[in-house]
Write a structure and sequence with these properties.
Number of helices: 16
Largest sheet: none
Mean pLDDT: 91
Shape: globular
Radius of gyration: 20 Å
Order of helices and strands: HHHHHHHHHHHHHHHH
Distance between the termini: 34 Å
Number of domains: 2
Structural class: mainly alpha
Helix content: 55-70%
Number of strands: 0
């Protein structure tokens, strides 16, 4: 279902902006999506939300417009409510365990997983705790699901409405069933910030958006954060050193970090003038990842981050 057209005067009303972004995110989490998880439109929508947030008083209508055009390419699920109604009708007993969801996932029966997840949601009076549990499982394959998991969690934190929890759950279950969840062994704890130099030299490997997501997730405040960190550390341990990326002048980036402003908004709008929509989507996700890295990096890393930004927009 296409979203409603937003007014040109949206910059005059921050509440209107929030409602518009929530509407687009709601649509993104409900799409029927069978392609690569790293291309899920929810990632792009949350990335745009973050970039637009750099100037809430004068939000980029161009970025909102491209977001709307992109999300309207996808059809949405129309059976979410049917599953919940079935569970309510059949009943779900007095005791429901979240581990039943994991067992169902391991059995490979998607329909059973959805039923067990619906029971868990209803028994918990629609608590978002199940999102953290599903994220814990998803992080057993960070290469495939890490980028999506971060933006999935953060976009719900922005939305914060119980009525959208079930579409969020179904979206994650759909992505989990596309991959193999890896067994992880506890080893030396590696922190993302300690691997920053190595990862920045992997620009051409396309790994930076995922690294940026894991770097930010590491510092988030979740009940299951220790499990998340163990998975991130396991993933970092598998990365290898690569050739060095060149550096360049980083004064514009440094000014943005010190003073804020429209640096990443302007770069994103510039992409709209140069590339077709699919390339724009990919590059904006990359830019938002580099924005996240820069916000958590020391000054010495800025020249190489600036070069990664240059490679993205050129």
């Amino acid at each position: 279902m296409p979203s409603k057209k937003f007014p040109d005067s949206i910059h005059q009303d921050s509440q209107e902006l929030i409602l518009k972004i929530k509407e687009l995110i709601t649509q993104a989490v409900q799409v029927k999506f069978d392609d690569r998880t790293s291309d899920h439109p929810l990632i792009f929508l949350n990335a745009v939300k973050n970039i637009i947030g750099d100037d809430k008083e004068n939000p980029s209508l161009k970025l909102l417009d491209i977001s709307e055009k992109y999300i309207n390419r996808f059809s949405v699920r129309n059976d979410d409510d049917q599953i919940l109604k079935k569970v309510i009708k059949d009943g779900f007993g007095l005791t429901v365990f979240v581990d039943d969801v994991e067992e169902a996932i391991m059995s490979g029966n998607k329909e059973t997983v959805e039923l067990e997840a619906a029971k868990q949601l209803l028994a918990s009076v629609k608590s978002p705790a199940i999102l953290e549990f599903l994220a814990q499982l998803a992080l057993h394959n960070i290469d495939s699901l890490g980028l999506f998991t971060y933006h999935w969690l953060r976009s719900y934190n922005f939305h914060q409405e119980k009525e959208i929890l079930w579409p969020y759950i179904r979206a994650m279950i759909n992505e989990i069933f596309k991959v193999h969840l890896q067994q992880q062994n506890q080893g030396e704890i590696l922190k993302p910030q300690d691997q920053l130099n190595s990862l920045l030299n992997k620009y051409n490997k396309g790994i930076l958006p995922t690294f940026s997501a894991m770097n930010r997730l590491w510092n988030d405040d979740y009940i299951r954060i220790e499990s998340y960190r163990n998975s991130i550390s396991f993933w970092l341990e598998k990365t290898e050193n690569d050739d060095k990326t060149e550096t360049m002048n980083s004064s514009d980036l440094e000014n943005y970090i010190k003073n804020g402003g429209r640096y990443f908004i302007d770069l994103s709008e510039h992409l709209l003038e140069k590339y077709q929509i699919n390339a724009v989507v990919q590059k904006i996700v990359e830019l938002e990842g580099l924005r996240g890295i820069a916000k958590n990096a020391s000054l010495g890393y800025f020249p190489i981050i600036a070069q990664c930004i240059n490679l993205t927009i050129s």
